[in-house]
């Protein structure tokens, strides 16, 4: 990739959920394009390692189980680095349980991380004093197009993000801001490894067979995310892009 092609040099890019998986890979690509990356996650040891692997990355420690500190987090970043140009929300937690075993309090915690903290972050960024030509990307789920057993709480929280990326288009356009979402199917990440570990080998084998192009890789999602954050996608907003290796049509 060429940094002049993506026009991301020195742009302030805030990545929530940056310590592993898709968020981490997106940080690395943005850093290679000379963007100014602000990585946010709760595991400092992972953020320190990521910083060593990048050239121009700073980090902030925050646990997105809570919403009450997000405004101060955004204010601190703007004070230190200037107006934010891009934000991708990768923070999330899984819940793999059949319906009869779901605990409502646990479900609320999943929504806290996967939806409500994202909503609060978007609310804080929706301010021309804090953001400029802002492009945001939310990571939903391809569950919008398919059904996977024992994932109802997780998929519902991601479905809320899918809807958010549509409903905020007009509000964001008032400031020339953009919002899109990516709907990944099964991608090989740390979080999906946890889900796979409690399923049978036979189930996991059948799952892989469902994907004509094979199970997704972190780069597959990260590359699209960088494109959506960049000015190359300047006329795109409100789009929910399914990334599933052809599974829906298979």
TrEMBL record:
Residues 30-60 form a coiled coil. The keyword Amino-acid biosynthesis does not apply. CDD domains: SDR_c. Keywords: Coiled coil, Oxidoreductase. It comes from the Bacteria. It holds the Pfam family adh_short. PANTHER family: DIHYDROANTICAPSIN 7-DEHYDROGENASE (PTHR43477:SF1). Belongs to the short-chain dehydrogenases/reductases (SDR) family. This is NAD(P)-dependent oxidoreductase. It comes from Campylobacter taeniopygiae. The lineage of its organism: Bacteria, Pseudomonadati, Campylobacterota, Epsilonproteobacteria, Campylobacterales.
């Amino acid at each position: 990739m060429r940094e002049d092609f993506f026009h991301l040099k020195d742009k302030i890019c805030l990545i929530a959920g940056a310590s592993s998986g898709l968020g981490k890979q997106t940080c690395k690509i943005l850093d290679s394009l000379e963007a100014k990356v602000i990585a946010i996650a709760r595991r400092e040891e992972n953020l320190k390692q990521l910083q060593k692997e990048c050239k121009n990355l700073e980090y902030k420690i925050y646990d997105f189980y809570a919403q009450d500190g997000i405004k101060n987090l955004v204010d601190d970043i703007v004070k230190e680095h200037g107006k934010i140009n891009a934000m991708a929300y990768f923070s999330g937690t899984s819940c793999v349980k059949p319906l009869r075993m779901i605990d409502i309090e646990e479900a609320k915690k999943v929504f806290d991380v996967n939806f409500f903290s994202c909503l609060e972050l978007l609310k804080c960024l929706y301010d021309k004093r804090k953001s400029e030509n802002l492009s945001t990307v939310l990571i939903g789920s391809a569950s919008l197009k398919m059904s996977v057993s024992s994932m109802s709480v997780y998929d519902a929280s991601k479905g809320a993000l899918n809807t958010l990326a549509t409903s905020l288009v007009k509000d964001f356009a008032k400031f020339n801001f953009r919002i899109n979402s990516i709907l990944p199917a099964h991608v090989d990440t740390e979080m999906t490894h946890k889900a796979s570990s409690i399923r049978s080998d036979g189930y996991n084998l059948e799952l892989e067979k469902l994907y004509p192009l094979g199970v997704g890789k972190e780069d597959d999602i990260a590359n699209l995310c960088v494109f959506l954050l960049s000015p190359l996608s300047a006329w795109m907003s409100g789009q929910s892009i399914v990334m599933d290796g052809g599974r829906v049509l298979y």
